[in-house]
Records
---
Amino acid sequence: MKSQQELEMLDVGKGSQRFNSNTRKVSAVARNAGMGWHQSKLLHRIISYFNIKQTLELGTSVGLGSLAMAANLPNNQVDTVEACPNTSKFAKRYFEHNNLSHIQVYTCNFQSFLSQLPKDKTYDLIYLDGHHQKEATLQYFEQLKSHTHDNSLIILDDIYWSRGMQDAWQIICHDDKVKVSIDLYFWGIVFFKPELSKQDFKVRCLF
């Protein structure tokens, strides 16, 4: 939040609703596009509560989400993917400075990462934060399902970012494999556990 360093950022998805230039201060990105304090605490608690050991994050940015997934959670291996080389480089230095050796950063676009992911690789939690387009979100979700197990959960960021994202969220909620969905407005969370009854919840957080 204090950094005045400027990064030339590469937007491979829908782009930013908050910035007009690709040259952005790290502090501005953290403040306007990064994960907020309350969301960070909630994500940290989710990982702790469900005893998450393997996490995939698609969309590292400057690393606030990764930090929430890894800080004081040494048993959670975090794989995080960032397409922008400059942002990825900054995040790597940030993690190294905070001794977060259990975060592995991959500098590539989401599709390249997923195409090279071993078919038998599964994650306990997948956090999808990027692209923000209906078709791309649905494509990633379809691919990511094969890398989940019965107890996995997927968190989708910014489900109300646009009409297309709202449509994508509704389609995902009605996916045959999804048993429970939770709409938190800023996130959508889906569970796959087969023994659960099909339910959809909307929760409005007071923060």
---
Amino acid sequence: MYEAKSKEIVLRRVREALAKSAPFLPPTPDFTSPLHPVVLREDLSLVFAEMFIKNAGVFIYCDDQEDFFDQLYVYKKEQNLQHLCVWETNLQGALQQAGIEIVTDEENFIQGVEASLTTCEALVARTGSVMVSSANTGGRRLSIYPSTHMVVANASQLVPDIKDALQRVRNKYKENLPSMVSLVSGPSRTADIEKTLVMGAHGPKQLVLFLIDDLPH
């Protein structure tokens, strides 16, 4: 008897709820709106630096190209990097003229390689990532094999999101897109074994970025 009354009460509540008008429904979401807040152009370098450092990268700001040479010389000396591989012709000439010792021989690349210096395609502020491609003279090797991968980039290469970086690559190479385009977000790491974080498992243990301020002030 008690069970029958309980069942009747539940059914009555259901009927009463169905008789009421439907609750206010929110408007249809705008799927074209950006997923993240828009990053202002003047904030790109700050947002990128914060995210890059969170990703365990080493961020070095340079006032201009001369300051970059000075900062690179000091960093190379402090880290005792004897073999710095540079394969991009323009970089080679500029660094040699600045008195910075580099390795340009590709034949003995694997033996004793400690660090590499490359350029990049773009810098993604949202994720603090460096976009590299196989179109670079260093190919894929210089961003993978050395224990320290150093990148020199200009502030004008900063873009808000990944899609902007990809568009930059498309505009640059047109129909001749590189065979590999990759995002590097900090040093290589893995936690596959017993959930213990290991740096440099599948690539460089350290990622260093020299950002040259080439924007008008």
---
Amino acid sequence: MGEPQMPGFKLKGRFIGLLTASLAASAVCVTAGPAAAYSGTTASAYADKYATSPNSSLYPVFGSDCTNFVSQAVHAGGYPFRNPYQSTTSVTNWWIYSNQLHTEFSWSQTWSVAVSYHNFLVDDYPGGIPEGTASGSSTAYWDPNAVTEGDVLFYDWGQGEGISHAAIQVGYGTDPNLYPNQVWDGNYVDEHTSNRYHAFWSLKPYNAYYATTTIYFMHIDAAN
């Protein structure tokens, strides 16, 4: 949870401004190679692998890492970059790049900020398909049937910040973070900040603001 990470440039652990024309002209490499079409299963497998141990060998790790983590998983699932090297703030652009050693990074705001990523998925084509909302106080076993593994959940804590958190749905079962003292069965998500593997989808057990939270469901179109 926490504040979103704005776009920028990372060099040896220090952020030094926005993408420049000189960087765009320099030799960099794509941080990961996606599949030909979006696979929620592949995205979920990536999320499971890095839910509690971030993929720091290929990507930056932010203090508020939730959307960066979800973007990585969705890209690993086959969602291609949109307009790489272009404006870091445009809602139509979604990308991250690094140098060959993965010590310098540049990225779009949509890659790292929850509300910007939400708006990008709505605006993009085929993009994402909004599938309604739910309350953060929900203890239901499942969220909408149209939302499957590899889809994205966005959270507005109801504290005046708007959408400020993202997680990725990865399966169904018992939340292992709570078992055996509490048994929460249902769809579960992986998330960063805090780093959790197979957390109950509404996050109610972890969320002090569950009574005011609204969750937005986003199905990722397989045609991407």
